[in-house]
Write a structure and sequence with these properties.
Glutaredoxin
Length: 108
Amino acid sequence: MSDKIINLTNESFDQVVSKSDKPVIVDFWATWCGPCRMVAPIMEELADDFDGKVQIAKVNVDDQGELAAKFKIMSIPTILAFKNGEVFEKIVGARSKEEFSQVLSKLL
């Protein structure tokens, strides 16, 4: 995984997301999830493409069930786009890099 992508825990979530001066994209995923594995390399590319403008983060729902419950994650992958600490957009399911890029561009 890219060093530009942060693994979030229940303890680090507020510090990274709520207090960020940049928009934050949070990918809720699990190791056993096929579509999640399809989205992972796209998130890597987006972390490079939007470096310094948007923070990309991941939450493993198996390890961080509290966070998944807090945001009512029912299906994975679910990508939440945060701006100023608030959910700006929610995307459920695998999408193309172009679709994710459009969401990121709206955040800027």
